[in-house]
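Friendly challenge for the regulars: who can give me the structure tokens for this chain first? No prize, just bragging rights.
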Amino acid sequence: MARSPLFGRRIHIAGSISVELAAAPAEDVRTARSFVERLVQELVRRGATFVVPVDAEKCRPGDDMPICFDWLIWQTLHASLTRRPADAPSPLAVGVQHYKNEDQIPQECEALWDSLRVSDLVQIDNVSHWNMNSKRMEAQAQWGDVLIALGGTEGVLFLANLYHDAGKPVVPLNFPITPSDDGARRLFTLGLSSAHAQQLFSTGERAASAWMNRINFAKRTLVPERVQMVIDLLESLDPPRAFVVRLLDTAHEEYADVQAFFEVVVQPVIEGELGFKMTVVDGRQPYNQPRIDQEIFVRLHRSNVVLADVTGMRPNCLVELGYALGRGLPTMLMAKEGTAHPFDIHTLAGLRWTTSGSVEERRRAFREHWTAIRSRPALVPTQRLIS
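First reply, four minutes later:
Bragging rights claimed.
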């Protein structure tokens, strides 16, 4: 099988079932759980990675069915390891947990969790300093690349807003396991409108609204067919975006070197190796906004990473760099060797590239710097007032 576009992308499956049996009949819950299990199996086979909360296994009182899907996902990941490509990236899953959760692991899952948590397959992000669900969901959203939502209530809507604001795809599913006006089902209804579907996700081949109608499954649709259709949608999603801040004035004396650097070094690594899609707003592409400055900042705001080259020291580049840093976006600062930096950015770790050396040497320097700074914390970390 050719490498899937989902290889290495971090999938976050979130949601829950209603505690009211009338709103979530047992048969529909079983269908949803079967879907999640098969979907995870297929995602593992394609080399995807995951974000999964580590929490208690709460069950609804009417029939003792688990309310959330988290431990089903953990169990399926463990059972599907043999499906995983040999070169799939690690960790397989980021487990976001609270300090209380170790004492809340379901008894039947203790052995599974004990084996996973000490392996290289799982990276634990412990957010015990935040004693509130919203902050834990923020941590989950920071790790995830794609949100798949089914069921749920306000928490799913909160997560969807976080993903949307970060420019990440939100794929809601219409399983009848909560009231139709809540959680993922509310998002799904929103997405059936062509005007709103493109806010959830974008694909290169087919309009988002067409995809939403394709995954508007009838009850008679079998689980394997549903899984395949959702996989097809996920594989059609646009790649994560890398917004480019750089010199674009062709008359500038440094333009030729900057253009060659991006063509020979940056693009082959960022797009060819890392799977991002570079976004450059230079006035030659279709606009989604009425003004070019608005187009720039909307795209910048919802990018996944920012590649900021300040060679030539253009004022607009510095404004866009400042916006990226203030927003806390992962930002790679670059400049041609010898570029004079203003004091405010002189101390930021950046790549000083040269025009000399082999192509592979220059790409290696770029890769090494990317690896060093890709998880760099924001300049001003979030400070809590109360937890």
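The CA atoms of residues 164 and 277 lie 18 Å apart. The chain has two domains: 10-236, 241-373. Your move, everyone else.
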